[in-house]
Amino acid sequence: MMRILITNDDGINAPGLEVMEQIAAELAGPDGEVWTVAPAFEQSGVAHCISYSHPTMVAKLGPRRYAAEGSPADCVLAAISDIMADSPPDLVLSGVNRGNNSGENVMYSGTVGGAMEAALQGLPAVALSQYMGPKTAELDDMFQAARTHGATVIRRILDHGDWTSGEDFRLFYNVNFPPTSAADVAGLRVAPQGRRRGAGFGVVPYTAPNGRRFMWVAGGSQQAPARAGSDVAVNMDGYVSVTPMRADLTCHFSLDRLSQTLDRDLGDHAREQTEARDGK
Hints:
The protein has 280 residues and is an alpha/beta fold. The protein is 31% helix and 23% strand.
């Protein structure tokens, strides 16, 4: 029997969560269980934030269904440490997010943050997001691609994914469904995280009637190009992207080169400075 925990960052009443419930129910089967612990209110953009400095209220809304006044990572912690403490989930699914979490969006995503927290707790986890665009806007169901192909994609990841790599940081997976109808999905591609060129977040200033200054955070074009073969690029080409990730921000490529110049005893450096100052 599979026990699946689902969460999201769009909130307990978000339409994407209903899609995720359907996907999870298909995966769990008639003998399995689907548990929902999701934010009471939208938490988009909170990344891997946790409510460290204040308490979080958790309310039971129904059988195996809870809302927490916190972030997706808070919800995962509440489920693992309290709600499901006696029998932890076999799998954690975060999403389905309304909008993509490809490219630079990954760094801000509460959807990805929920999956990351599950991985840090030693559990298999997948984040799922539905890329939106002109084609999905014409559909009766904007989540059609994720709803139709979600369970199949997750089964393939469960069967073939690397769930053991990394001694310290367990892998999790970031899945983005393309901005197309389900019938137009071209296939599945394993892809690295990309970055849209010239499409980062910015600020739109606003002055209220009382003269106080505020700001709105605004994102750039989600249709902007990115490096060929990256998650953004394959999504725009109609493919589902699967990106293995882990909570390790180390740039391993630079470690050896940098250590050759920086791995020095600070006492030696101080002596060299003294000798240079004294003209020796």
